[in-house]
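Technical note accompanying the year-one report. For the benefit of new consortium partners, we illustrate the data format agreed upon in the data management plan: each record pairs a sequence with a structure-token string. No post-processing was applied to the example shown here.
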Amino acid sequence: MKNKLLREELIGKNVEVNKTKGSIIDETKNMVTIRREDGEIKRFIKNSSTFGILSKGAMHYVDGKRLIGRPEERIKKRFR
């Protein structure tokens, strides 16, 4: 499931990073921008974070190092 999740669009997904919960509003090659539940916007570096991504009713934890890269390139990439 995690490999399939890595190829999905992450913008709009609910996520938990470093005890911060919210939804992803933007993603770049090395950074993810999250709007917290209280409306505050936070940015996290992919390389140094672990992301808990809510997908199909379950939380899946992904090392941010696996998310590094442009979103359009990551979607095409094959993961083992």
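Partners are asked to follow this layout when depositing records. The first strand starts at residue 14 and ends at 17.
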